[in-house]
């Protein structure tokens, strides 16, 4: 049936600030849903408190409410918009669902005559209430692990006694595995049971018999009102049961499943979806399969909404699940909708993959000192990367190259573990770097049978690893001169980077690059087309691979390349890679706006990124999307292929910025601020000289490259001293030290983690106020888009501070210094585009902490607070299309906006929660207040020094 005409105005609930377990994949889903509804002429009203995302951009919905996600805000919105017909809660993760259910229980939807669409509340209750779900599964004949529900401590103890150990405890109504844990030993049970009961909003847990070593799979389904069901994607977890799917290395399509078992699994998933309720929309089903010939299947859970995996499945298949789910929610059927990629077939089809996808999570344990780094049922990763290759090996290598953890891929970079006990320990207790440790174990000669016995990772995956190591061994017997074309091609097809091959044969990366270039071993680009090339794809969404040359009957030798280069002028925007603490979704917001602004200026836009959770990697954001690692070799090949006018690096955070030197060295034009200026701002010595020449004060400082030098510097500077490495983001490795012993310990530790780094030692201005400014500069004119004052004192990382726009107690004299310094620094650095400057204010004197001539974390916040598209303006300035004076700036803000950090410490119960110069927050929300008498401001201000630590 076509769209329901009655639905003219729809409220969408967002997912709020980013936390571990609920990240920007829901921002991506929500953005798609908004666009999808607006295509049908439906008025969209959005509530979301996250200022960093593209979803809360004024252009995304007809009305955007940056309000706290609670029923009070919902009532306010429904009063202001009596025309709202329905609410769509399935796009904002567990946060949106929980809020929708709470509003339903309070009768709010009934009071305002608002219908819930896209989901069935009864279906949610069945799936979230593990006892009800279990009874239903047994009734419809779907197997489950032995399990029972406990809503008291006593009941939990009884169940444990009956089942025996190991056990799994799962808390009801939580996301990201909050409160879930494996219990191997009886002595751990009491504490973990208590934690699960406390975390669950209804104080209920399900206790399961643990299925140790079983394989885990996920299916993504869509269903319409006619009961048509399509399975979009089957995802296999490389890790066996016992590790949260958000922390698992996953592969699509499923690699080790027999066709017969896959068909059984499909039937079970469809049967489950139909039995939980009568709703149209997306669904995610998780199964466990026994690792023997029987391949017994057991249901784990079903989520009747778009899930974390939906974003991954959408990017993996090219089938935009959230976009279609939104259409189904308003009444369309699958056969009435177009396949978004081919444009010539319907959405009632199941994608076919002629490539392999590997997703690897990205962790940030270094930010949580004392955290339990072992992986389990509770999700701990902060982001993820996805890679596309022609084989599992190629995709695995590309994914490891995308992680940005100073590895060049699996092995062949001299950074593997060499200690037998350490390797066994890391395999026995799943470690975050196990994807590399498996390779190290094979390299050490540990037999595959032993690795399987410890990890229960399917032998097929282990054999793929072994093949890679055998190839490395073979190549290592050659020199760059004697290396054959066939061997280089094989290594490239299996995903080895030029750097790795150079490591194997003992030469420079450039020598390998030049040799393969001479031999004609070049990357080719293939379309992600959803249908294994059965129909023509209209959407330019590419991945790279290597192919052997083919000779036609006419004797023509060629390699098939599906990425056709146009003669239009082009701009490449480098994305920010995987989310992590210090570099999150705010840079994705900037990249998307950069792409849209370049398109407005008449450029063909090319996006390079490897983050599956974001809007920047949507297939229709840029004119061309290369889903590739933001890794030099891949970027250089795309640039050589496309020949753009230049590359924008200042919107993708530190990831893109780090590549500026190489781009400059290879003669590739950097759009906006030059590499020399970017480098000058990073090089503390040169930057301080610039400040000195312009009579701008800065804290006394010096640099050191060894512990001895640092101790000498300490004799000249007064303690406390702020120590930090250069070229890092999110305050990585920053610490305030108060004596020589602490200084020596921290410097030795830093140089071990980041060898050859130049360390900066600043005298720390104790008790100073911190402020920051963001500005746009065209080389001649400067416009300050916002000045923020931090509620917390100097010494807490700006990303962890409550930042107030405009400042609340800086006098005119101080404000004038901030403005003067900002103008001067922006012009002296020859900034073209955005710049962020951080200040410390002591005794009415404004000191410069640092300047970053790029988009900063606060730009989206200021844009939302003032209602101005600053990244759009800045991009047009970078491209030389406009001067700052060409824009009519009209910022509008009544009262104050406060950027509030949000932390995910609940995932790490034993971690010290004190704040310091190293950033620890995972997300942020925005709070609008009318004046400084507001209770919330008073509360923040009174607690401002509570968490300050070294």
Automatic annotation (TrEMBL):
Q: Name one GO biological process term.
A: L-arginine biosynthetic process
EC numbers on record: 6.3.5.5
Q: Which cofactors is this protein said to need?
A: Mn(2+)
Q: What class of enzyme is it?
A: ligase
Q: Which SMART domains match?
A: CPSase_L_D3 (SM01096), GARS_A (SM01209)
Q: Name one GO molecular function term.
A: carbamoyl-phosphate synthase (glutamine-hydrolyzing) activity
- Keywords annotated in UniProt: Amino-acid biosynthesis, Arginine biosynthesis, ATP-binding, Ligase, Magnesium, Manganese, Metal-binding, Nucleotide-binding, Pyrimidine biosynthesis, Repeat
Establish whether keyword Nucleus is in the entry.
no
Keyword Ligase among record annotations: yes
Task: Report the pathway entry.
Answer: Pyrimidine metabolism; UMP biosynthesis via de novo pathway; (S)-dihydroorotate from bicarbonate: step 1/3; Amino-acid biosynthesis; L-arginine biosynthesis; carbamoyl phosphate from bicarbonate: step 1/1
Per UniProt, residues of the ATP-grasp domain are 134-330, 688-879
A cellular-component GO term for this protein: cytoplasm
Question: Which domain of life, per UniProt?
Answer: Bacteria
Family, similarity comment: Belongs to the CarB family.
Checking NCBIfam families in the record gives: CPSaseII_lrg, PRK05294.1, PRK12815.1
Q: How does it assemble?
A: Composed of two chains; the small (or glutamine) chain promotes the hydrolysis of glutamine to ammonia, which is used by the large (or ammonia) chain to synthesize carbamoyl phosphate. Tetramer of heterodimers (alpha,beta)4.
Main function: Large subunit of the glutamine-dependent carbamoyl phosphate synthetase (CPSase). CPSase catalyzes the formation of carbamoyl phosphate from the ammonia moiety of glutamine, carbonate, and phosphate donated by ATP, constituting the first step of 2 biosynthetic pathways, one leading to arginine and/or urea and the other to pyrimidine nucleotides.
Q: What is this protein called?
A: Carbamoyl-phosphate synthase large subunit
Q: Which organism is it from?
A: Aquimarina algiphila
């Amino acid at each position: 049936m076509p769209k329901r005409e009655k639905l003219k105005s729809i409220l969408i609930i967002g997912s709020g600030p980013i936390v571990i377990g609920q990240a920007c994949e829901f921002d991506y889903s929500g953005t798609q849903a908004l666009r999808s509804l607006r295509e049908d002429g439906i008025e969209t009203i959005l509530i979301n408190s996250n200022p960093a995302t593209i979803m809360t951009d004024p252009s995304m919905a007809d009305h955007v409410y940056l309000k706290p996600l609670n029923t009070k805000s919902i009532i306010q919105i429904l009063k202001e918009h009596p025309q709202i017909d329905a609410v769509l809660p399935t796009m904002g993760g567990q946060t949106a669902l929980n809020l929708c259910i709470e509003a339903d229980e309070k009768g709010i939807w009934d009071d305002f005559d608002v219908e819930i669409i896209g989901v069935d509340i009864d279906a949610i209750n069945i799936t979230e209430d593990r006892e009800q779900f279990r009874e239903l599964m047994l009734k419809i004949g779907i197997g489950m692990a032995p399990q029972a529900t406990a809503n008291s401590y006593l009941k939990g103890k009884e169940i444990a006694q009956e089942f025996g150990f190991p056990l799994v405890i799962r808390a009801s109504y939580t996301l990201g595995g909050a409160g879930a844990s494996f219990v191997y030993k009886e002595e751990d049970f009491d504490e973990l049971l208590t934690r699960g009961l406390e975390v669950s909003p209804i104080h209920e847990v399900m206790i399961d018999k643990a299925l140790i070593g079983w394989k885990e799979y996920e299916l993504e389904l869509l269903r319409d009102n006619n009961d048509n069901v399509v399975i979009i994607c089957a995802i296999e977890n490389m890790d066996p049961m016992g590790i949260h799917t958000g922390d698992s290395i996953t592969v699509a399509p499923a690699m080790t499943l027999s066709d017969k078992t896959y068909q059984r699994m499909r039937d079970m998933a469809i049967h489950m979806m139909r039995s939980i309720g009568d709703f149209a929309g997306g669904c995610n089903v998780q199964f466990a399969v026994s690792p023997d010939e029987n391949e017994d299947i057991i249901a784990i859970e079903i989520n009747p909404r778009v899930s974390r995996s939906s974003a991954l499945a959408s990017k993996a298949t090219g089938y935009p699940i959230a976009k279609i789910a939104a259409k189904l929610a308003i009444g369309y059927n699958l056969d009435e909708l177009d396949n978004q990629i081919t444009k010539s077939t319907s959405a009632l089809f199941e994608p076919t993959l002629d490539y392999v996808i590997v997703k690897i999570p990205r962790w940030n344990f270094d930010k949580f000192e004392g955290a339990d780094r072992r992986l389990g049922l509770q999700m701990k990763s902060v982001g993820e990367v996805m890679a596309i290759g022609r084989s599992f090996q190629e995709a695995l290598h590309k994914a490891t190259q995308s992680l940005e953890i100073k590895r060049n891929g699996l092995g062949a970079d001299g950074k593997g573990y060499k200690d037998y006990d350490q390797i066994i320990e890391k395999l026995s207790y799943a470690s975050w770097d196990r994807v590399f440790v498996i390779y190290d174990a094979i390299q050490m000669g540990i037999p595959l049978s032993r690795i399987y016995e410890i990890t229960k990772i399917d032998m097929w995956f282990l054999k793929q690893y072994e093949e890679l190591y055998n190839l490395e061994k073979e190549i290592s017997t050659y020199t760059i001169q004697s290396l054959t074309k066939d061997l280089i091609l094989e290594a490239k097809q299996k995903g080895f980077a030029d750097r790795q091959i150079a490591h194997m044969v003992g030469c420079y990366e450039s020598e390998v690059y030049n040799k393969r270039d001479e031999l004609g071993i070049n990357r080719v680009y293939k379309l992600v087309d959803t249908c294994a090339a059965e129909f023509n794809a209209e959407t330019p969404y590419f991945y790279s691979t290597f192919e052997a040359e083919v000779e036609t009957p006419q004797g023509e030798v060629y390699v098939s390349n599906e990425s056709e280069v146009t003669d239009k002028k082009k701009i490449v925007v480098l994305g920010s890679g995987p989310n992590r603490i210090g570099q999150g979704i705010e840079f994705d917001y900037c990249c998307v706006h950069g792409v849209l602004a370049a398109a407005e200026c008449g450029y063909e836009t090319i996006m390079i990124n490897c983050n599956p959770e974001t809007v920047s990697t949507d297939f229709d954001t840029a004119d061309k999307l290369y889903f590739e690692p933001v890794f030099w070799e891949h970027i250089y090949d795309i640039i050589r292929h496309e020949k753009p006018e230049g590359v924008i690096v200042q919107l993708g955070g530190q990831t893109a910025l780090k590549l500026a030197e190489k781009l400059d060295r290879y003669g590739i034009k950097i759009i906006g601020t030059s590499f020399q200026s970017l480098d000058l701002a990073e090089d503390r010595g040169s930057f301080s000289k610039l400040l000195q020449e312009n009579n701008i004060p800065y804290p006394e400082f010096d640099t050191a490259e060894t512990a001895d030098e640092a101790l000498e510097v300490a004799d000249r500077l007064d303690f406390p001293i702020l120590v930090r490495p250069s070229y890092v983001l999110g305050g990585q490795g920053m610490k305030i030290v108060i004596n020589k012993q602490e200084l020596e310990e921290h410097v030795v530790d830093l140089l071990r983690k980041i060898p050859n780094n130049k360390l900066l030692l600043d005298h720390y201005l104790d008790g100073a106020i911190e402020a920051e400014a963001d500005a746009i500069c065209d080389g001649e004119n400067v416009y300050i888009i916002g000045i923020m004052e931090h509620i917390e004192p100097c010494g807490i990382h700006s990303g962890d501070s409550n930042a107030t726009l405009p400042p609340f107690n800086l006098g005119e004299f101080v404000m004038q210094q901030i403005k003067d310094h900002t103008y001067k620094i922006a012009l002296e650095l020859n900034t073209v585009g955005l710049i962020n400057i951080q200040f410390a204010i002591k005794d009415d004197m404004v000191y410069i902490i640092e300047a970053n001539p790029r988009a900063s974390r606060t730009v989206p916040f200021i844009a939302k607070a003032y209602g101005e598209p600053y990244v759009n303006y800045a991009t047009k300035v970078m491209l030389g299309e406009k001067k700052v004076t060409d824009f009519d700036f009209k910022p509008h803000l009544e009262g104050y906006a406060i950027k509030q950090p949000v932390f995910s410490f609940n995932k790490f119960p034993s971690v010290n929660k004190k704040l310091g110069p190293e950033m620890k927050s995972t997300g942020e929300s925005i709070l609008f207040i009318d004046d400084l008498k507001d209770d919330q401001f008073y509360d923040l201000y009174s607690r401002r020094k509570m968490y300050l630590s070294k």
